[in-house]
Amino acid sequence: MKEEHAEEYRVLGIKIAMYRKMRGLTQEQLAEKVDLNVSHLGAAEATGVPRTISLDALFDIAKALDIPPYKFLINDLKDD
């Protein structure tokens, strides 16, 4: 991951966690739905250390959460 994209990955992780929680799912439940290792999902959601995630995984997560994928990429967070 390029350092210049660290903030985008941080926002992506926050948004995945936010939408997952809005749907009432645990990390384990979402990881199972999208056939992703729970530790990888947890790392992607963690805000301290940006972690890359594949587009395939992002599309799968978006589908499982019934969210258009672009919503994960828009930084509309207030005072994060």
Structure report:
The structure is a single chain. The protein has helices spanning 6-22, 27-33, 38-45, 55-65. The longest helix has 17 residues, at 6-22. The chain contains four helices and no strands. It is globular. The chain is an all-alpha fold. It has a single domain (3-69), classed as lambda repressor-like DNA-binding domains (434 Repressor (Amino-terminal Domain), Orthogonal Bundle), CATH 1.10.260.
Major beta sheet summary: none
* DSSP summary: helix tally: 4
CATH topology value: 434 Repressor (Amino-terminal Domain)
Rg result: 12 Å
The low-confidence parts are none
Number of strands: 0
Number of separate structural domains: 1
Provide the helix percentage: 40-55%
Overall pLDDT metric: 91
Following the backbone from N to C, one meets helices and strands in this order, namely: HHHH
The CATH superfamily label reads lambda repressor-like DNA-binding domains
Overall 3D shape? globular
Provide the structure class.
mainly alpha
Strand content: under 5%
Characteristic terms for this protein:
single chain, 80 residues, mainly alpha, 434 Repressor (Amino-terminal Domain), globular
Summed up, what is this model?
With 80 residues, the protein is mainly alpha-helical. 54% of the residues lie in helices and 0% in strands. It has one domain: lambda repressor-like DNA-binding domains (434 Repressor (Amino-terminal Domain)), CATH 1.10.260.40.
